[in-house]
């Protein structure tokens, strides 16, 4: 082979390799997940099980693992775990974990763990939780070594140990309700730990039910009402609540800008009233990091027009988008403003943008921080934004807030009371109003009223949901009303899945006799992370989540002047938050409203395609010539993608030039 031929082949291969390397590098840069915060320690975390082997290596990773640093509650489930080694048992069922702003929670329905040549450690209903004020709780349904009960309820608050019989593999100890704190006062609570001598047998350590909570950050003094706040990814405040008022008055900023980031806001007005109410108007806000001609249409742009927040004296709040050119543009699309949370996805399917609307955060002192809009870039590239913020507390209001209901002491658990017989008879399986409305499902009635006469005495439906919202679902709903009793039931109920207030119950049933006796039963499940046993449920069993205004009541009984008005198997109330109310398995003396809870189509109703349809008052196709559909094609664009395409083109050009030069030289040769 001639030297010139060999050189031509080598140079051709080199040019091709250069092109491949450039393409791979570009694609890697474009779609490589952001790792800026990979090493960040989460504020709260929880997991079900972790196993270390004989050498201290990880045999089973933390699972199911949930970690929270900001944003929504993180929840994960795992059906079961199995054995890893012969002569060792490592089995558990129904593992759950949750991490949120207020704390962390983990639970395991049952477990059986036996290390080689040692007795089995078994347990049921393991639950562990921690809160950011340093508190933690551990509980078990049962805890045994073989058939010996080793559960010491009086020592769960402080923790204790139990030594297994010594085997040829040395000593093995069981740690129960172990608590530790690091130098930053971050607490870690382990419900159960089984630890052998290191290097003795296949398994060294088993950790079951582990939660960690860092102390909550001390809140600084904040104004009563503020307009625009912008904070860099590093935590530096770029715009600090402009304009703002600390007491009764008004303040307006015609224009707000920043020298550090491309942010512009116009005609922002804030007001705090003497009765404790507040109001914020934002005519326009634009954060457009990409300075190109199409920067305002890129995923990184946040544009808001015609946003207002109204907070009444009692603390209730609402937002609106008013005017012919109002709307919210984010992640390359005009979003539906009728939801409380929008999640924008990247081309690879991972979340990269969160927008919270009418967000309500309950503070430790009982006050509530209300944000009209809060924008969060999950990639950590662009600044976070809050538009319209109000700090409400009962002491600032001249009106009393809605009191927290207390359990009704009147006869309720199957006890008859002639004065408590409902005057009308209506029963239904499910009803919801607020962001995820559901008209009464499986509604039946009996009585003399026109409404009652128009309904059948029995009703049923296979399934009921809130549509695209995905927050409410129920199956096999039925109700019956006759001369003897009224009954409503739901075979399965799931509310707000994956959140701190998740309700997951089976066979919810309510019966109200003609004599006023009440019986409510359930097949069991969980409510806000707490296990609900199967069987009868006491009247007005209330479950709350620390740091949240939502209340969930099982067997909720409402009376007026001693008379029973309504019984709900499940009643979820978030009137101080999203304005949501959900009831399941209901018997009532009055007919439910069948129309008022359904907003018009396009105003956040569940029929709309969440996140991609225009919301209430959003920009129409006539304004700026851009509609929801047209803008939707820009959702997958971005500076990284454009950079990748440009880089590939450049590399291709350089490679082509290289090959042409080589060809010319070979020809001359």
Automatic annotation (TrEMBL):
Residues 394-421, 439-465, 586-631 are annotated as: Disordered. It comes from the Bacteria. Residues 602-624 have a biased composition (Low complexity). The keyword Membrane applies. It comes from Bifidobacterium psychraerophilum. Keywords: Membrane, Transmembrane, Transmembrane helix. The chain crosses the membrane at residues 642-661. This is Uncharacterized protein.
